[in-house]
What we know:
Elements: E1 4-9, E2 16-20, E3 25-28, H1 34-43, E4 53-55, H2 61-64, H3 67-71, E5 78-81, H4 82-91, E6 102-105, E7 111-113, E8 116-122, E9 131-137, E10 140-145, H5 153-159, E11 164-168, H6 173-178, H7 183-190, H8 198-208, E12 215-219, H9 228-241, E13 253-255, E14 265-266
Parallel strand pairs: 3-4, 4-5, 5-6, 10-11, 11-12, 12-13
Antiparallel strand pairs: 1-2, 1-14, 2-3, 7-8, 8-9, 9-10
Amino acid sequence: MFMRFTSIASGSSGNCTYIGSERTHILIDAGVSKKRIEEGLKELELGLSDLDAIFVTHEHTDHIAALHTILKKYDIPIYATNGTIEGIKFSDKKGEMLDSRFIPVETDKEVSVGDMILNPMRISHDANEPCGYRIFCGDKKIGVATDLGCYTDYTVECLRDCDALLLEANHDIRMLQTGPYPYQLKRRILGDSGHLSNEKSGELLCKLLNDKIKGIFLGHLSKENNLPELAYETVRVEIDMGENPYHSSDFEIMVANRSEISRIIYV
């Protein structure tokens, strides 16, 4: 068995991740336009009708923007925590129209879709019961964790032994602190329920590196408070200076593209 893994779009303005096996195709989040998602799937020789499920991490617009538009035409089940489902319905009255499509999931309880098993994990973010996902197919494991203001031993344990990862590297702390954002917004982003900085992303990654990782995406970059080359370089330095047996050159580390499909990782 194998999986292919890529980001269709990733950034503070919109997120959508594809994971597929020989017979199962899923998205994690649908936070960009339906057209953009269709363009990304076309590059994978797929369409929306090929999807078996969409898994949602939380109810913020940059993760659900296209849900209603997609589901007007396609009968795709939507998996999310009860908190996220309620958040979607509360924030957008159209969410109530999606009621029959929602399938509740619980963190740390496995869900099977085709030949994949997904296991949601708790994350620390200012949303209503947000989660990341671990995706299994055969002996392969992929981890997707963005929108986490901090990480814990639980986070490390959940994402240990992955064959591929998409991990948040949202902001450069100095760019954020000296940038134009209002003070309260800066506090939110820097808080334990905000977003992971480049430095913290690198620190977390050092705890997750293993001999079998095929590729690592750095995702959910802020357009205003980060730069792709800065995120990459900061994470690289954290790995090379960290207390681990690895060097950054041992791994394929990529910044996920903001508005177009990224390179495909095969595991």
